[in-house]
Amino acid sequence: MLNQSEKYTKLIKEEALQLGFMSCGISRAEFLEEEAPRLEQWLNENRNGEMSYMENHFDKRLNPSLLVPGAKSVVSLLLNYYPNEFQREDSYKVSKYAYGRDYHFVIKDKLKSLLHFINEEIGEVHGRAFVDSAPVLDKAWAAKSGLGWVGKNSNLLSKKVGSFFFIAELIIDLELEYDTPVTDHCGSCTACIDACPTDAIYEPYKVDGSKCISYYTIELKDSIPESEKGKFEDWMFGCDICQDVCPWNRFSKPHSEPLFDPHPDLLQMTKQDWEEITRETFSEIFRKSAVKRTKYQGLKRNINFLD
User: Fold this and answer.
1) Hey, how many other C-beta atoms are within 10 angstroms of the C-beta on 12?
2) Rounded to an integer, what is the distance from CA 279 to the centroid of its chain?
3) Which side of the chain, N or C, has fewer Cβ within a 10 Å radius?
4) DSSP letters spanning 86-97
5) Which residue of the set 132, 194, 199, 265 is catalytic?
6) Would the pTM count as exceeding 0.90?
7) Closest alpha carbon to 15 in 5, 24, 6
């Protein structure tokens, strides 16, 4: 016979799968003691570059009860985005996570549905949904709840499905059954470190955010440093190199979320098409995509840098 918290946990995990999440893990909402000194050091060394927002809300990043008063549980969820089809070979590349609809909206809707379900089935539960847009260390929570381990490229890795997935959380004031972390399975592999063309993975498990191709092509608003010329391997928005070479990603399977399917033109465009892209075409292909973050001018800057 299940006790109440076991029953609630089972209900939540089953509903998460119904909503299309690939997995769900739960951890106790408590201060992230191990992460605190690591985050402090990373910021002190300016590894965040121009991402000054990483310096804000330091305490909230580490303490979930500052985000949700009385927080008891962090429900971590993974949503697959590995595509069915890919861009053609002779093209400038867009990171796979940005092929389809902006994930913030897709996941937020699913999280709201899950929170609504919890309130309907369990009773009044207070909580908040988080998708990469608030001060929450999502990889740390997902690892604590047994959904994978943080690999040498600082991505969350899973033996079953690799790393091509989004991470989201519900922080709620409901006591649940808690999962336990899994062990690290990177072993002696250094594929991601060896493959990174800008040496952003400066030590195993440590990434200099200010040297990552994703940073240069999305976050950096100034000109890309000339010293990086010729290192981007045709990535014009984001970069998947450290994921593409990871042996665990041979277990990636295509997603089943229609909203993540790309605009057909995205897969067909050649380098020349990208070089000649107009504002209209940009708006059409990336109408509801995360690529809009870089804006037309930003994408043109990136393409010119690669040219």
Assistant:
1) 25
2) 27
3) N
4) ---TTS-EE-GG
5) 132
6) yes
7) 24
